[in-house]
Amino acid sequence: MFEARLLQGGLLKKVLDSIKDIITEGNFDCSPNGLSLQAMDSSHVSLIDILLESEGFEHYRCDRNIPMGLNITNLVKMIKCAGSEDIVTIKCEDKPDNVTFLFESKDNDKISDFEMKTMTIDDEHLLVPDQTYTAVVKMPSAEFQRLCRDMAAIGDTVNISVTKEGVRFSTTGDMGTANITVRPNPSGDQKEEERTEVQITEPVSAGFALRYLNSFTKATPLSPTVTLGMVPNLPIVVEYKIADMGHVRYYLAPKIED
Amino acid sequence: SGGQSNLGQFFATR
Fold first, then answer.
1. Does any CB of chain B come closer than 8 Å to the CB of residue A79?
2. What would the mean pLDDT of A236-255 be, rounded to a whole number?
3. For site-directed labelling of A136, which of A90, A95, A241, B1 has its Cα 20 to 30 A away?
4. Which of B10, B13, B14 to mutate to test the interface with A (most CBs of A within 10 A)?
């Protein structure tokens, strides 16, 4: 059986907000290591990779690997019924037809349980290689969100080029062009999460669909910083670390040059 | 802007 108790139930809401625009169903894999999800959007252009490590739960029991296929839209509806301060327990049997969500209010004066039907999902599992990224950019997640939103107001595709001087985001649309360059902050005055850091072994440049990048920024409430990893001619990875718990990562296939 | 590639072109399936 599987049983996991999460003290910060609001975290589940944030995780679901970060995926609900991209996928409608997915297999949550329960394993002794933690709860994970890998799923592609319907066009197979982007991939979501979530890990919530067992150590991050207040109580975690998983005897064997259990795939928990869930409709994300319905899951969002159910988790919305939890208060953001509630303690959430997720429970299911080894071959589950149903999964139970137990919500306990912080003051322990209200207990709710919801049972949701599982579904069988045949999804393609991708082997994402352990990559050494040619360029890694760490920046405030709110700044990345703002930047993607601004770029999307002008164009559909953003070209991201990273040099040691900084990261340049460029787009072109019917009304004109936009370029935003973010430079690594030189001074040590900022808090770590307010800094932009660039590490490169060689300059990288590629184009990506802003529609997807904007969806990824729905993960902003999960982390004060976001990390972009790029390798020439390979998908970009956009990672939001969840403190003491794991991550939400997105992979996005590049645009092809004409 | 060019066409859109998909992840199957980069990552193997299991």
1. no
2. 97
3. B1
4. B10
Closest to A16 measured CA to CA, from A143, A141, A101: A101
pLDDT of residue A257: 76
> Which residues, in sequence order, are CB contacts of A190 under 8 Å at separation 6+?
none
Distance between B14 CA and the closest CA of chain A, angstroms: 5
B11 contact residues in A (CB cutoff 8 A) = 47, 126-129, 235, 251
Q: CB distance B14–A256 less than 8 Å?
A: no
Tokens 């403190």 belong to A243
Instruction: Judge: A256–B5 Cβ closer than 8 Å, yes or no.
Output: yes
pLDDT at B1 over 60: no
Q: How many CB atoms lie within 10 A of CB A113?
A: 11
Q: Give me A211's structure tokens.
A: 């529609």
CB proximity A188 to B under 8 Å: no
Q: For residue A186, what pLDDT band results from cuts at 50, 70 and 90? A: low
Q: What span, in angstroms and rounded, lies between the C-alpha atoms of A32 and A24? A: 26
- Hey, which residues does A18 pair with through a beta bridge? none
